[in-house]
Prior knowledge:
Helices cover about 15% and strands about 40% of the residues. It has about 250 residues and is mainly beta.
Amino acid sequence: MKKLSTLFTLGVTSLLPSISAGMLVSCKDEVIDYRNDIGVNVLKDKSALLASESPKEIKITSKSNKVFYEVNILNIDDETGKMQVKATPIYKKKVQESFEMTIDGFQKSTKQSKENSTPEEKPKKYSLSEITDKIYSIDFQYKQLFVVSNFIYTRLTSTLVWGEVVIFNMSAGPMKLRTFWSEYSDIKVQFNLREQNDEKGTCILDVKFTKDNETIIKTETITGFKLPEPPKPPEPKDPWDRFFPKENE
């Protein structure tokens, strides 16, 4: 149980009506029932707010717009979601008799919620193999625009670029490496490129996944790179050259 004692000095604004009636004041044939005149506005959803978190979110109002209320918190109980307060009306610059009221409907203590929480609400632990088994192939984005050697030496220049061009084709759909890093930040990923072949437009990529003390290596042969342009054939000789040799030959 959390107890607080503090003072609201909110002008012409206030909290919820009290349970019982009373506190009637008559002035020039005008009768004000302070218990019914006081109003409580909680600026956020009470059901998602602990009572102990609510003081800054409470606005005190006067339904008649003629009364100023000073509200003193007597007790806050997060387990029951209730707040006990004492309200002091000030009408025409005169302090009136105080009264107590209860504000309820707040979220109940998270201690109780945690005890009743289901396993699904807790972060699920997973093994490295559970994740790598979902990766059925690995590929490079934009590979069709580059010859293998050019792709390696002009595109794969930084970790940031690797994050953009490496694609894990997973059971749930393609995932960029940078997204994988974000979702599985506890998995370390390392790469080793080998046996690149410009003529065939292929390369072999080893991907090493490490989590805790477990390591898994996936090897992928990546195809579909741009093939190098074939060498241009030599220009045919003009058959008349033997009769009319060019100058300087």
